[in-house]
Amino acid sequence: MIQFVSNKGGGQPVDFETAILDGFASDGGLYVPTTLPKISLQEIAKWKDYSYTAVAYEVLSRFIDESVISEKELKQLLADSFSSFYHQQLIPNYALKSQPNFYIQELFHGPTLSFKDVAMGFVVNLFNFFLKRRGEQMSIIVATTGDTGPAAAHASIGKESLNTWVLYPKELITEEQERQMTTISAPNVFAVGVSDCPDGADDLDILIADLFVDKSFKKELNLSSVNSINWGRVMMQTVHYFYGYLQTVNKVGELLNFAVPSGAFGNLCAGSLAKMMGLPVGKFIIANNQNACLHRIFTQGIFLKKDIIACQASAIDILIPYNFWRYLYFAIGQKPTKIKGWIADFEKTGKVLFDKETFDAYSKGYLAAIISDEETLATIKSVYETEQYLLDPHAAVAVKAAQNLVPKLSPNTKTLCLATAHPCKFPESIKLALGTESNDLPPAGKHKSVEEAKTFCQRIYSCDYKNMDTAIRRSMKAAVN
């Protein structure tokens, strides 16, 4: 049975259930499996015609022992998690006509029109499954740059074992994203708009980490998180890399490049682990907006926090990619003492400069590009005018990054660009890109659920960041007492 340990080395190994429900490890580190299961090309080839949920079962069952969740229970959890998706295939591919060997993986057909639905629904269902079996209740808290919060909030509707708190930086996400949280009327879901966050959602991540360090508060609230710090989120996201690969290649064994719009590194961490498990990957293309936190790490070897820049691809306005530490743990051969030291250095000085041996170990197989807002908007316009296919800003960042890096890719290899959100969530960006006036968006820039939310009442907890620590503790305690 695979056990789970902190990437910082503290505490004792725990089972899968504990790792999921705890969120953070006891020393504040991120849970990682003691070993990664290996999947052969022969096994992957058998999945060529499998549905997404069937592939998911094959991958996840290698991490989850039947003594924890039976085969029947796991298959039912997966079926329930994807029952509200809008597309029959769940995650379809689109071949770009204007760019040979470029494909789009549409990860946005879930209930909140974001790739976060792919993992979030399953992880929240896992929480509910374990808590009901234990007869317990729990408070979960997440910070969002626009997509994680709606996905967590929607997945929590009707889950009597959970109180879910979603924190978002006011005025740094779109109205459409905000309303996906604030128009939910479920009594166990709380949307908290936080004003004056100097570093956006990164500030909220720090606040949440401080809540987990407070052992008394964590115990009183039975507190956990379904942010991408939770192992379940990363584990589940490995699946769409296997599935996307199988949907794109002609023959299992050929290499496939993945272009990923990147901020916190959770999605790319999942892809990296899929490669370590046996998925044939050519290059990972790290598609950054102008915040460029991952570009610095993968081209200069510098982990550095700078002032945040508000970009068109706002969901990747991230300065501190926490899941990089989870990936690095495996990239350097599972050395928690080093991870702990680097994290401590960063917390003390705001900067880590990696040595050449470490840089070479983690950067092999990765390319990175910084995409400006001007390039993002131009890519949306170009693709739409060429083939009437509408990209959201994040998919545009991935496509443009891949286009810029074609000279560094092996000739004739295919590239799968991950589209992580529906364009309807970013109408102002779409209008700006297409030169469209008022509300005259193309049909692909709208979605019924988002249009309906514009007519609903909103329920919002509001607070200023400087008062947030005290305020959120008071409100969360009140909700469970």
Would you mind describing this structure in some detail?
Helices cover 44% and strands 15% of the residues. The radius of gyration is 21 Å and the shape is globular. 48% of the residues are buried. Helix 11 packs parallel to helix 13. The protein is built from 20 helices and 15 strands. It has a domain at 93-113 and 232-447: Rossmann fold (3-Layer(aba) Sandwich). Strand 9 (256-261), helix 11 and strand 10 form a beta-alpha-beta unit. The strands form four sheets. The protein has a six-stranded mixed sheet with strand order 3-4-14-9-10-13, with helices on both faces. With 481 residues, the chain is α/β, with parallel strands linked by helices.
The CATH class of one domain, by name, is Alpha Beta
Average pLDDT over all residues: 94
Rg computed from alpha carbons, rounded to a whole number of angstroms: 21 Å
Q: Tell me the helix content.
A: 40-55%
Low-confidence stretches: none
Helix/strand/pairing class, anyone? alpha/beta
CATH architecture verdict of one domain: 3-Layer(aba) Sandwich
How many angstroms separate the termini?
A: 38 Å
